[in-house]
Amino acid sequence: MTxxxxxxHDRGTMTSASLGVLTAARNLARQMNxxxxxxxxxxxxxxxxxxxxxxxxxxxxxxHNSMLTDFGPEAWGESIAQVVRKxxxxxxxxxxxxxxxxxxxxxAARLDLPAAMNCSEFDKDxxxxxxxxxxxxxxxxxxxxxAQLDAPIKLLTLANHVVEPQEELASTTPTxxxxxxxxxxxxxxxxxxxxxxxxxxxTLATSPVVVSGGRGVGSAxxxxxxxxxxxxxxxVVGCSRAVTNNGWRNHTDQVGQTGTRIAPDIYxxxxxxxxxxxxxxxxxxxxxxxxxTDAQANIVTKAGYAxxxxxxxxxxxxxxxxxxxxxx
Amino acid sequence: MNILVCVKRVPAPGARINxxxxxxxxxxxxxxxxxxxxxxxxxxxxxxxIEKHGGDVTVLTLGPAEAEEQLRTAVSVGATKAVLVxxxxxxxxxxxxxxxxxxxISELETKNGKYDLVLxxxxxxxxxxxQVGVRAALKLERPIVNGAKGLEIENGVAVVRRESDxxxxxYKLKMPACVGIKEGINLPRYPTMKGRLASxxxxxxxxxxxxxxxxLKLITLRRPPERASNTVILGNGPEAAPAxxxxxxxxxxxx
Lengths: 328, 255
Prior knowledge:
The structure holds two protein chains of two kinds.
Chain A: E1 2-6, E2 9-10, E3 13-14, H1 16-32, E4 35-41, H2 49-54, E5 59-64, H3 73-87, E6 91-96, H4 98-111, E7 115-122, E8 132-138, E9 143-149, E10 154-159, E11 175-180, E12 194-197, E13 209-213, H5 224-232, E14 236-239, H6 241-245, E15 266-270, H7 276-282, E16 288-292, H8 298-302, E17 305-308, H9 311-326
Parallel strand pairs in A: 1-4, 1-6, 4-5, 5-11, 6-10, 7-10, 13-14, 13-15, 15-16, 16-17
Antiparallel strand pairs in A: 2-3, 7-8, 8-9
Helix pairs in contact in A: 3-4, 5-9
Chain B: E1 2-7, E2 9-12, E3 32-35, H1 37-53, E4 56-63, H2 68-76, E5 81-86, H3 94-112, E6 117-121, H4 132-139, E7 144-154, E8 157-163, E9 167-174, E10 177-181, H5 193-201, E11 204-206, E12 216-222, E13 232-236, H6 241-250
Parallel strand pairs in B: 1-4, 1-6, 4-5, 5-11, 6-10, 7-10
Antiparallel strand pairs in B: 2-3, 7-8, 8-9
Helix pairs in contact in B: 2-5, 3-4
């Protein structure tokens, strides 16, 4: 019996989501009174064993194959499947990220096992032999599902940000176990073939200030005052799905379940009603200021702060007030 | 080229999702339904590809009989054929769904020849399982890459663009291939009058759904605890501006 954590990395650099997975896997192994082991994929990830050891893994499995120099969902899924067949763990935990979901799905399909994605809680009485009860998030977190994973080996991904990473050294140096995985030529084509690196700068995902507009803005042109306010606050402009659906702004500006999840210091939501689709993308904001004509709008009742009024008048007034104080 | 797009009928919730008293489903008594957002974009992408390269777009759904509505919606924006795989419940588990879908696709291909592309949504909006496309692709023995924010055909190869923290990754898949599409790849069009008429007339083919129950079982749905609302109203109309700027100063976002 083992709990196996699958480490997500990009060409040898571990992703932050992996740290939560290592922590959760260790905690679950302790509850089950069993071993906590980890898996890294590709020789370029061998050096991650040290980080993994800091989280208390007793064995680090290293999957090797000359093809494994970059990310490839099928090859990674196949690698997980082969290591799982070799060591028969009780539970396998991957990251709740785009890559994590994809490789766990690939492994599950290859092993013909069920998989539960985005789990946030595990049954406190689970000891390894019975079906595993989990809580997993649906609708981007606005709905929870209690589910039962009934399989000899439980495959799942951990919802991102639910487990705080906590290092804890194992009492002994972890054993390194290398597996030469056999990869069919057919998986070669689904590796990353090329990359275009992003130009550094403030993005919607990282900006500390986001000024966002919804259906209430009314047109693409009417975003100008929002642009101005964002620029005065060194922030960026976001929008709701209604706005992108109307073609007023590009999807890259969309905050929401199918857009970008943000966590700025302040989120200024103008003319946005706050439908679930939007709220799940904005709810991690540290402060929310809603500007809306409707005092009963969902976003107004959920926000920390609100101004009741027409955004077309309120937003320019805020910009004017900022300039007035700047000029003092 | 021939493209098949798998879509799912999902509820279109507003500000609050209610659950039926047995905890098994979203209460849809007062909700409309829609095509899950990623799949809506998959249909649009398929239609754009056949506009460029010629061919047919078949749209397929496994769902209740009412999901015919979503198939007709897809036809109204340019899909040419529609296949309904009816089931008695709102949802099947991911393993059973993938098994049933891949069987139907194989049957359709025996009759009509292979689809160059089979498109899925990255994940469904309601159950967020992230796996049906991957499982179906493996059963169909063709490659799949998820998270596509770009899909073009270049020299008979499907070129997939996908976003990552560092930038954009490019994948090249020999067809026949499967791709998981993400919203944002395009802006889905609105139906034209001609499209609406076509959607009323299109014949909906029906295929039988068969699959074995998988190992992930829903016990119950529940809502996360709500945050207590104690919104501070800073004022009404433009007169609230000084109070807003005071707050911005207090939070340190404006100095």
